[in-house]
Structure formats: C-alpha cells, structure tokens
Amino acid sequence: MNFWRSLVVNGSRIIGHLIYRIKITGLENIPEEGPVLLCSNHIHALDSVAYVIHLKRMLYVMAKEELFKTKFKSWFMTNMGCFPVKRGPASEEAIQKAIQYLNEGNMVAIYPEGTRNGLAKGVKPKKGAALIAIKAGGVPIIPMGISGTFKPFTKITMHVGKPIDTSTYQRDPINPRDLITLTNHLMEEIKKLVDN
After folding, report:
1. How many CB atoms lie within 10 A of CB 115?
2. I need a labelling partner for 63 at 20 to 30 A (CA). Which of 87, 97, 114, 137 fits?
3. Sequence-ordered list of residues with C-beta below 8 angstroms from that of 193, at least 6 positions apart, any chain
4. How many domains does the chain have?
5. Which helix (H) or strand (E) holds 85?
6. Is residue 189 a contact partner of residue 143, using CB atoms and an 8 Å limit?
7. For residues 182 and 76, is the Cβ–Cβ distance under 8 A?
8. Is the per-residue pLDDT at 98 higher than 80?
9. Which of 90, 77, 28, 89 is nearest to 48 (CA)?
10. pLDDT (tens digit, 9 = 90+) per residue, 27-49?
11. Rounded to whole angstroms, what are the CA distances from 42 to 5, 53, 144, 174?
12. For residue 70, what is the domain's CATH number?
C-alpha cells in the first residue's frame, strides 16, 4: 500500500469508527489471499468506503464515474482503491480492469444491482459480476449484505456469506444462460444476508 493510499484509508478508518457503529460477521469467509469477487447490495454512497476501511484485505471497488468528476474526488476515490465504471451498458474498460486486478490475485468489489437500493426498487440485477468472475478464470464470488442508514452514530451491519463456486461455469464461449443462473443465485444469497 503506497503512502497516500495508506493515509487515506487509515484516516477514513479512524473517522469511520468514530461516526458509525459497524458490526461485521462472516469475515472468516474471506480468504486471506488469492483472487475473489465481493458482491453486495448497495444502499449508500459510503458503502465502498465502509468496505475498504473495515475489511482486512486490500480491496478494489468498481464505482460510478460521477464520483471521479473533480480532482479531489478522483484523488480520494483512487486512493480508496476505487475505479470508475460508466452508467448504462457494461463498460468494457471497467470489466477488463476488474479482471486485471483479479488476475493479479486481488479482491474486487462490485454492486450487481447497478444502482443504489436496487433490491428495494425491484431493479433487474446486472450480469457483470458473473461475467467478470467467469472471464477471470472462475474466481469465487463472496456475497455480502449491508444494512443501515449511514446516519451519524447509527448502527451499520455487514454480513459476509460463504463463497460461491463459479468454476463449473467455465465454458468457451460463455453460455448466456449461465450468466443469468449465476446472477440469480448470487442475488438470492445477498438477499438472505440483508435479511439476516
């Protein structure tokens, strides 16, 4: 971890612990090393920050490009380990970046809802997470559920689920039905964790 990232992450970690009461369960489900894709519901703009400062492993998070518009935001988000993705159709650049991080043995986080509170709104989940996991060689997907309001001094709960094996979906070419099946399975696990 470079100097600036260490400064941003550790500074955010101190502030986060002062402002929020965060409870995390299931941390043992996250392997200490090796590529893994973390997929969670999305309830607030600070979700990504909460993950980065409370998970032990270095994490790279796919975040909407609007969060990188100003120089300060871009500097902060980049040092938090976030990288931009365009709205709308899947961004090939962001997909390749995520695969690159995974191929290097890192942990990457994606929000399958594609927007905030997608579960509550009944938004159809995106298949990008399944596609990335398969294209990266069948890396495990770890579902995660987060709940809370992110109002100062309130409780935020994060439940980390057991890894989902994606190696059985390795086909060339990729079967579109596999993407749907894997995405639906992932969202079912996330919903269970949110309701836990």
Report:
1. 12
2. 137
3. 143, 144, 145, 159, 160, 161
4. 1
5. strand 82-85
6. yes
7. no
8. yes
9. 77
10. 999 999 999 999 999 888 888 88
11. 23, 16, 10, 27
12. 3.40.1130.10
